[in-house]
Amino acid sequence: MKKYLKLLYLAPMAFFIASCDNGFEEMNVNPNASTEVVPGFLFTRAQLTTVANNYTGAAYLTIGQSMQHFATYKEVPAAGDKYFNYGYSNGSWALYGGDPASAGAVIDVEQVIGAVKTAPENVNKLSVARIWRAYLYHRLTDLYGDIPYSEAGKALTDKNFTPKYDTQQSIYADLLKEIEESIAAFDASKATFGNSDLIYGGDVTKWKKFGYSMMLRLGMRLTEIDPAMAETWVKKAIAGGVITSDSDMATIAYVDGSITASRNFIASGLMSTDYVNPGGDNVEGGKLAKTLIDHLKNTKDPRLNVISIVWVPSADGKSFTADTTTALQKGMQNAAFNSLPGDFNTFSEPNPATILKYNAPLLVFTTAEAHLLLAEAALRGWYSGTTAEAEYTAAVTSAMKQWTLFGNAGIISDAKIAAYLKDNAFKTAGTLAEKMEQIGTQKWLSLFLEDEYEIFSNWRRTGYPKLTPTNYPGNLTGGKIPTRFVIPDSEENYNKANFYEARTRQGGTNTLSSVVWWDK
Asked: What predicted TM-score, i.e. pTM, was given to this entire model?
């Protein structure tokens, strides 16, 4: 009887539960969420997320300071100034996934490729997505070395939540193959992403040049580790046709809108993170570095007056004016202070009329960089169609002209460019090292702010420009400029076996002083 009564009691409960479950799955679906991949939308987001992810922590505080473009007197944000706080470098790992509003470009681009790869009419979309995927992964592997690659971004499709770490050597080989195959597959008669492509608006011809320019960059990265392979890919890229005209430069446009995401993330990041108010202290204690400002002044570089200002107070001290006068510009020494310097307000800051404009464009791949790569190729005897001097001159000219894109305050006259080239002419009679130093230093200048990642990689590969390390008490590198980003602790928790295997393969350490495969 007790069992019978118990069943009678449970029966309506079971019915009630079943009734509650009826239709529950449908009720639990977000009516505003898309259940299908929209390739154009995801590709747009992949482009934006790839370039903007972790800008402040990585490009500004870690690389920008260690490459001595910026300096800070504070200790917490001194990842590159005093070689503290490796945690800022962890944030770039979020490209694998994380906050869906700001990360996960790997997942986005993998889903785009999965959605378009089977339809022949989507061949251009597939090619562009594969080239952008190569751009994304080359940034990740250059920062971290061995990373998840062949099995990455497949948690949804393959239920693989612990992807293996591929060697950087194998990743580079595949990236170059992917770029080459994608370029060959383009078909001008087929559809493109159109306006969903923020860089070229679906222009296949320009995407080919971008692809070959990426091939040139990646090929040149191998000069110290595999010269034969480097030469092969550099020659292929040059034969294919790289970016040599400013009209083919890869850029993303931004607007000064009320929506933060529509603003240039560099300007927005620097304004909110450090340069909020003119005069007095800055949030992260940042200023432009002495190394940068001294070099610009000593070489009479007209970019100084485009890049740099000093806030000059009014007579009553209640307001400030941004002054670009050369004599006033003064950079702050890296790792020289641990408290607010008394003359802090006399140090140079980024120019609000150019660098800090919310509607400034992002230069993804510049004509100047391509010319500098071609100059190096000519030096190495891999390019007979020009001279290193001609490419150097073209690079400097383009690097100065590109500031026009930032508005009237960025215009540098032809006369000033000519005067600079006269005073800083290519050393045709110099040694190979002297010529390489000129090329490397111009890359450090021409990619300032826009692509600190590439400056960091080129410095590790070539040693140029020559930078004097800091050795602040208690730093994490023993007074060595950081050479690799640190993979976050979460990988040790969630992908332990693969992480340990990769760490062992890369010298057994996961620190700012570790090195990647091609860094010799």
From this structure: 0.92
